[in-house]
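Contributing new records

If you add data, match the layout below exactly. Sequence lines come first and carry their own label; structure lines follow with theirs. Keep one chain per record. Anything else will be rejected by the validation script.
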Amino acid sequence: MLVGLLARPRRAALSVGLAPVRCMSRVGKVPIKVPASVTIKVDPIPESELPPFRQYSKKRLKYALRNRPARDGFQVFGQPHRVTVEGPLGELSVPVHSFCRVEHHAESQQLHVTPQCGGETKMGKTLWGTTRGYLANAVKGVSQGFRKELELKGVGFKARVEPQATAAVPAGEQRAVTFRLGTEKYAQSPYHKQPSAPTSYDPQRGGVLHAGGGGGFQRFRHPLTPASASTADGDALMLRIGFCHEVRVDFPTHLKVSSPSPTQITIFGIDKQQVGLAAQRVRLLRKPDPYKGKGIRYAGEVVKLKVGKRK
């Protein structure tokens, strides 16, 4: 009888008077170990950087706890905080929702994240593990960094890295096609819970790539003239991937791209999201062909090939 009650959904448990058991976040309650070379600073976000906010009513607050966090609820539970993580590789800043509290214990070198509800509401479950994951990635990024590796499969497929100021296309080409890794700042990305109102966003064009924000591609086709040469400080990835022209991808300065061999690409950075986003955008330039497998793929990626037409 007891086994049958436990196997039933929670509604059946409530009908017989058993108290429901809410699952707490197994990720959020794990403390974050901070290396000795990393410094943590937790500061409240100044009110001058926050948009005007109208306080929630009790009824709206009740329903907000049942749903996922909304953009206008970033400061509903008080003053949101910003956690600044600085290490040997750089510095990252992570904004924290006002529903979560971050405590840094200098004696044990640990970070603890706790929600105000103790993980008993849907909003608490959503933010608890997510906030802890963002902070853990920031600590690892400034101390060790993140790396993504890509492979080129195909006859004549090659890659090389050059400075943007001197990068050019092969002789005889009349036009260059440049794919600039686009970017938005944290407060301009519609995919984040930003502390300020979002600006206009074109998903087809993207914007400027910053550590801590989303991003996209900007495509430019321009004549090969000295006036059109780039003077940026970053690197340019030049790709021969089966087109009639050579594809050029301009990387921002906070991402390092290298090509250990003509068929390998390595992207390194301190922001996990930015490294993964850049690798995804490069892969989308020539996805693996479903019949022959030609294209750009992640290192170790298994591409399942389709059966071609039989005679």
